[in-house]
Design goal:
mainly alpha
């Protein structure tokens, strides 16, 4: 049972790879298969941390791996969407480049400051992950998104900026920092409360 969280993490990575691989083949069942894999991947993301905390195996190494695989999973799905519906990406290229750049800046800033990758798992980022999931889900099935993509873009910017703010405030690298306010408390040397379901 103690290996279940890491099994879920690698399952998510394999799901992303399979979704990308399937995008290069024409199949009547593509939409159904990818929808199932994508949904299972999201569920694995939700439950791996919860299970790890319940089993008391939520180590720094596991949380760092979880963050890395999260990014790879959504990147693989985004590449799958691009391979199927490139026109959407070309039409929204500026927004996508901005969002990816801010994401990359947060990751690079954390590496430069702490020599470790981002693993804040902020609550706002979890909300954005759900919006990103719904947006990519719509794109996988239809090849287009307007309202959801706009919401995803601006929420993504805000949450990435919060992560940069968290990194700025932290004196030492920390994982599972729920918000920028909690980072401020940590900077002052105060203990913070983490919700067992989310952090």
């Amino acid at each position: 049972m103690k290996n279940l969280p890491i099994v879920l993490i690698y399952f998510r990575l394999c799901s992303g790879i399979l979704i990308l691989a399937l995008s290069f083949f024409d199949s009547n069942y593509y939409a159904a298969i990818t929808a199932i894999l994508f949904s299972l991947g999201l569920l694995s993301d939700i439950f791996d941390g919860i299970i790890a905390r319940r089993l008391h195996v939520a180590t720094q190494k596991l949380r760092r791996l979880d963050s890395l695989v999260d990014q790879l999973f959504f990147l693989l799905v985004a590449l799958a969407v691009f391979s199927r519906w490139p026109a959407f990406f070309l039409h929204n290229a500026v927004k996508i480049i901005i969002l990816v750049s801010v994401e990359g800046a947060a990751y690079l800033f954390c590496l430069l400051k702490f020599r470790r990758e981002v693993a804040t798992h902020a609550l706002s980022s979890k909300v954005w992950a759900l919006v990103l999931f719904v947006t990519l889900f719509q794109l996988l099935l239809t090849g287009n998104s307007t309202v959801l993509f706009t919401l995803c873009f601006y929420l993504g910017l805000l949450t990435r900026l919060e992560i940069i703010g968290i990194i700025l405030l932290l004196r030492r690298w920390a994982h599972d920092v729920p918000s920028i306010y909690h980072a401020y408390l940590l900077r002052r040397g105060q203990a913070i409360a983490r919700h067992p379901l989310f952090n």
